[in-house]
Amino acid sequence: MRVVINLEGVPLEFTPINSGGKFPFLDSVGSLRIEARAGSVSGFGSGAAPTASFVLDNANNVVSDLIGAPLRALTQIYDDDDVLTFAGLVSSIRFGSTLEVTLEG
After folding, report:
1. Residues 25, 57 contacting (CB under 8 angstroms)
2. Predicted confidence (pLDDT) per residue in 17-49, tens digit
3. Which of 43, 35, 55 minimizes the C-alpha distance to 100?
């Protein structure tokens, strides 16, 4: 599993904690959320964009100092087989001892 955040054309690759990667701060990746299409009244229940989330370890503010607040940054999530599972833009970040990042497709 890995997450790549593209900051001003520079890809920063975050890998799982203790993985030995250059930026081993990836704590977890949440579920992919997509809109379920079903019969509905016109104009209701449609228009939600797919979303995904992930958490980065931000001990001593290392990650927040590195990436700042990359709202609207193109970000990709790859699975353990290195297959792209989601690509979207950073839509929100919650700062603390971890960074909780939400992407919108």
Report:
1. yes
2. 999 889 999 999 998 877 666 555 555 555 678
3. 55
Paired sense of beta strands 98-104 and 84-94, if any = antiparallel
What separation, in Å, do the N-terminal and C-terminal C-alpha atoms of the chain show? 19
Amino acid making up residue 33:
R
Among 17, 87, 83, CA closest to 52: 87
How far is the C-alpha of 1 from the C-alpha of 40, rounded, in Å? 37
Please identify which residue in the block is written with the tokens 């929100």.
92
pTM for this one? 0.86
- Tell which residue, 104, 103, 99, has the closest CA to residue 25: 99
